[in-house]
Design goal:
The protein has helices at residues 5-13, 26-30, 35-44, 123-154; strands spanning 2-4, 18-24, 51-57, 64-71, 92-94, 96-103, 111-117. It contains four helices and seven strands. It has one domain (2-154). The N and C termini lie far apart (55 Å). It is α+β, with helices and mostly antiparallel strands and 155 residues long. The model has no long low-confidence stretch (mean pLDDT 91). The protein is globular, with a radius of gyration of 17 Å. Keywords: Coiled coil. Residues 116-143 form a coiled coil.
């Protein structure tokens, strides 16, 4: 889909985009159960509509959230105002699908974003998305466990 940058920023600022929220188990994620991505695909494939699908891992000791968004650059919707640093207001650009991961234990910035697709989620992109989600989850889990180990050593 093509969108005017000013229109993109206005829609994000005014929450005029499709939002959905799903909860998955860590087992669904680790076993590459793609049911949630099938749901996300149906939402993201709707033409002429900006979308955000949040996927929360519900049964972990720490919060980890994944966001699939139709954006214009590798910035989450939360940072849409920064788009003006890269585009002119009247510029018309194609939207792409990005995966953002937010977790306190992921890395120093507690955030990571990946370009998933230039247009629609197909089988390869869905597999890539699951792989990135699993990798980011594993990294977060390892960092969380290291935190626990260092706290135990300090006592």
């Amino acid at each position: 889909m093509k969108i005017n940058i000013k229109e993109f920023m206005d829609k994000i600022e005014n929450n005029e985009f499709k939002q959905d929220h799903f909860e998955i188990s860590k087992d669904d994620l680790l076993q590459s159960d793609s049911w949630v991505l099938e749901q996300a695909k149906a939402i993201l494939d709707k033409d002429e509509e900006l979308s955000q699908v949040m996927i929360h891992v519900a049964d972990e000791e720490f919060d980890i959230d994944f966001y699939l968004e139709t954006g214009v650059i590798n910035l989450p919707f939360d940072d849409a105002k920064k788009v003006t640093h890269f585009f002119e207001d009247e510029e018309i650009v194609d939207t792409k699908i990005y995966l953002s991961t937010r977790c306190d234990y992921l890395n120093a910035s507690k955030f990571h974003i990946d370009l998933i697709s230039e247009n629609k989620l197909e089988n390869d992109e869905m597999k890539k998305t699951l792989d990135i989600m699993k990798e980011n989850y594993q990294t977060s889990l390892e960092n969380f466990n290291k935190k626990d180990e260092s706290e135990t050593e300090e006592k």
